[in-house]
Amino acid sequence: MKAVINATPLIAFAVIGRLDLLRSLFDSVIVPAEVYDEVVVRGTGKPGADALAGANWLQVEASPPIPEIDPLLTGLDAGEIAVLHLARQIGPAWVIIDERQARRIAFALKLPVKGTLGVLLAAVLAGLLTREEALEALEKLQQAGIRISSRWQDWLRTELDQISYQISPQ
Question: What pLDDT sits at residue 62?
Answer without folding.
Answer: 85
